[in-house]
Amino acid sequence: MTAGGRTIxxxxxxxxxxxxxxxxxxxxxxxxxxxxxxxxHEAFRSAAMDLGYTDQVVWNTLHGxxxxxxxxEEAPIDLPLAQFRRTDHLLAFHVELLLAPISLLYLVYxxxxxxxxxxxxxxxxxxxxxxxxxxxHTGSDFAGLAFAAVYLLAPALQGALLSDFHAVSLTAxxxxxxxxxxxxxxxxxxxxxVAAAMLAKEEIPALVLMQGx
Length: 213
Hints:
A hairpin with a 2-residue loop joins strand 1 and strand 2. The chain is mainly α.
């Protein structure tokens, strides 16, 4: 077939099987683990101390009550709540400012399922920089596919996807993207992904500092 006197292959280039395989792996991963995470939630396996309070924080932030929640008030948890001046504000416990921009997703679909699917999508996309970095430094598409598959098959990541929602889990992918952008000297994108990672939880800036060193 031709398109304007040129073959479609000449115009768009040949489809490379390994990048396509990585994209299909990511798609299958996102669909499968999104389904598992939602089914787990609908089977009442979610916890109030994780997905519950995050859902509250996101909803309240979107509606003008920045980082407020009620989950910890008089809750039977292993924290000296009487020593806290306020137990209705997330910043008394964690600094997860990334939840503020995430709250905008509740304008589309206000449900804990939104957080679960977001977590799967962001973590799943981390296979892309794993593939790109491995392919670049080994010169092999197959090695890139292998590194992407190992990333997606990591038990720690899969466990995180089936343990409610934690903003810090997103840093597995965000920091991989940061490494890739730094390696490519694309500094604007590097600082963007690093900033997003540091907003996920209070200890991540220390990790980024060590990366810088």
